Amino acid sequence: MYMKKSKLFFTGVLIACNFLFLAPIFAKNPILKKLGVYSCGTQPKQVLFSPDSSTIVIPLLDDTGFQVFKIEDQNKTLKIIPPRAKQKGFAEGLFIAEKHTFLVSQMTTGYLYEYEYPGFSYKREISCGGQWSKFIAWTSDTQQLAVSNWVSNTVCLIDYKTGNIIKTLKTKASPRGLAFIDNGKSLIVLCFDGGVIQKFDTSTGKVIDSISVEKSAMRHIVVNKNETKAFVSDMYHASIYTIDLATFKIINTHHVFNNTNTIDLYNDQYLFVSSRGPNNPDGYTKRSLVNGHITIIDVVNEKPIVEFEGGNQPTGLDVSPDGHYLCFSNFQDANFELYKIE
């Protein structure tokens, strides 16, 4: 699928001193300085900054664990090998700052593995109660985890303390992205093959609202700080939807580059978007013939402000909690890129 480029498109210019200035005419907009491109294991599916913004974790889909990269020591990475590592399939991760912990999902086994942070000493495994477990969400209000099970078409709510499954939510096809809202009383579920965004009551397990988009492939969701809006990526339509959470309706759509993937919100105003690029004609699992893009959208003024080329299939993306760094992974290149936000 090939989408037309946005009319508001500015290409980042790489100058000799290795600065990447993005849309400099927008003085108040983010400016990125490229710090480097770093090799990692096979198929880096996601990148996640630690709560103190000092460390990046890279779950590896076609490898035997995840890697740990310390920003101050960029010459080496530490590889962590969880149980059942030979089955590979490490898809997503989650830091829980208040628990000093990191969780990684292994979709080939349906388990989460928990590690202490800092240090990454192994703590325990948690069964997700389904097949092809992917995304992990957390709510401090009820001390619960939510995990989407892609093949089972379920989301399991898990009590953090015991690791036991409290409730299993039956969703439309291929649930992926998740977000708790309303103090943990509601959970938003994106259904990749189901063409729908569902809102569940977490106490009853029932669907209380939904948004349908024909032929959509919903992937990732982020919510602003005061929970008035959510932003959702749709791979099939190469779009970002703005959702009014009060009415639970789409109020705006931004079209970006092909195969929209991971998103993150910076300063509650700038949405960073990774787009994998068009699929290889011989199959979506092969290298794309065109590199993917990173787009920054000003969601307050509702306009894209910059777009630049990444590597082959940018997939994972994260902005550090302190707002100083951007990182994204290039799935087919087996590397990740790190930028300073200025």
Textual characterization of the structure:
The chain is an all-beta fold and 342 residues long. The chain has one domain: Methylamine Dehydrogenase, Chain H, CATH 2.130.10. The chain is built from no helices and 30 strands. It has strands spanning 13-14, 20-21, 32-39, 48-49, 55-59, 66-70, 77-80, 90-96, 101-106, 111-116, 122-127, 133-139, 144-149, 154-159, 165-170, 175-181, 186-191, 196-201, 207-212, 218-223, 229-234, 239-244, 249-255, 260-266, 270-275, 293-298, 303-309, 314-319, 325-330, 335-341. The strands form eight sheets. A four-stranded antiparallel beta sheet has the order 3-30-29-28, with no helix packed on it. Strands 4-5-6-7 form a four-stranded antiparallel beta sheet, with no helix packed on it. A four-stranded antiparallel beta sheet has the order 8-9-10-11, with no helix packed on it. Strand 21 and strand 22 (239-244) form a beta hairpin. The protein is globular.
Keyword list:
342 residues, mainly beta, Methylamine Dehydrogenase, Chain H, 0% helix, globular, disordered N terminus
Summarize the entry for a quick read.
This protein has strands at 13-14, 20-21, 32-39, 48-49, 55-59, 66-70, 77-80, 90-96, 101-106, 111-116, 122-127, 133-139, 144-149, 154-159, 165-170, 175-181, 186-191, 196-201, 207-212, 218-223, 229-234, 239-244, 249-255, 260-266, 270-275, 293-298, 303-309, 314-319, 325-330, 335-341. By secondary structure, it is an all-beta fold.
